[in-house]
Amino acid sequence: MKQRCNLFLALAALAAVAAGPVSAGAQAAAAWRPLLIYYSLTGSTRIVAAELGRALRCEQLELTSLRERTGFWKVNCVIDQLFDRDDVPGPVKLEIAQYNPIIIACPIWIHRLASPMRTFLDHGRIAGKEVYVIVTHQGNYGDKDEQSVRQFLAARAMHLKGYSAVLTRGTTEAEIVNATKAIIKRNFSEMEKPVSGTTNQNGGCDNE
Predict the structure, then answer these.
(1) Is the pLDDT confidence value at 189 over 90?
(2) Which residues on adjacent β-strands are paired with residue 5?
(3) pTM to 2 decimal places
(4) For the chain, which residues make up each domain, given as ranges?
(5) Residue 156 C-beta-side C-alpha neighbours within 13 Å
(6) Which residues of 29-51 are buried (b: 16+ CB within 10 A; e: fewer)?
(7) pLDDT in tens, 90-115
(8) Could you please report the per-residue DSSP string of 65-104?
(9) 202 SS3 class
């Protein structure tokens, strides 16, 4: 029995040698499973997300809010931001743990991430992961806003790898797309992209 065991171990060792070491490229490819998480109210951030998804061919999760935010009820956006009120989120049908890195696209409302995204991130679902952030804004935006976002992410154990901002006020859809393409070239051009098609796990969303 001992001889059989030794023979088995020897054959296993030979097989491992024949297979050779796993290349760094193969390891990186296995680890590269990006997920795009975005929230859009008026549609501008959805344009950014669509271009990111097209270029990176990554899966997408669109956050939804059950709180009324149209017409008069846009006041809910203000209340959420000024009083740090959590959103009432729609269902999330995706297991986040299997993805890395995470790409976040989200508008800035009153100098902070929009409350639907803040509420989602506050639940700690992507703590410890690498994240790339693209924020959209309407011009009232500066270094303090960026630092606020960076501090928010760091406090929740996210490892920020890239940060960009896209001005949407007074711009055309084509200009937003071109700004997003520049961000992709700057942050993602050297990353290996998966060959699978884009999938939106939460389906389409209207209103933004």
Answers:
(1) no
(2) none
(3) 0.77
(4) 33-188
(5) 19
(6) eeeeebbbbbbbbeebbbbbbbb
(7) 999 888 999 999 999 999 999 999 99
(8) B-S--SGGGGHHHHHHHHTTPPP-BPP--S-GGG-BSEEE
(9) coil
- Residue 50: C-alpha distances to residues 57, 136, 139 (Å): 10, 14, 22
Fold type of domain 33-188: Rossmann fold (3.40.50)
Residue in 132, 124, 123 with CA at minimum distance from that of residue 100:
132
* Residues 103 and 35: beta-carbon distance below 8 Å: yes
Token pair of 13, please?
């060792």
Question: What mean pLDDT comes out for the span 189-200?
Answer: 46
Under 8 Å between Cβ of 171 and 136: no
Cα 51–Cα 205–Cα 87 angle in degrees, nearest 5: 105
Letter string b/e over residues 63-96, b meaning 16 or more CB atoms within 10 A of that residue's CB? bbbebebeeeeeebbeebbeeeeebebeebebeb
- Longest Cα–Cα distance of the chain, Å, equals 81
Sign of the dihedral defined by the CA atoms of residues 207, 118, 136, 139, in that order: positive
Band (190; pLDDT cuts 50, 70, 90): low
How much is the pLDDT for 7? 41
Among 42, 176, 205, 177, residue whose Cα is nearest residue 108? 42
Show the tokens assigned to 12: 């296993």
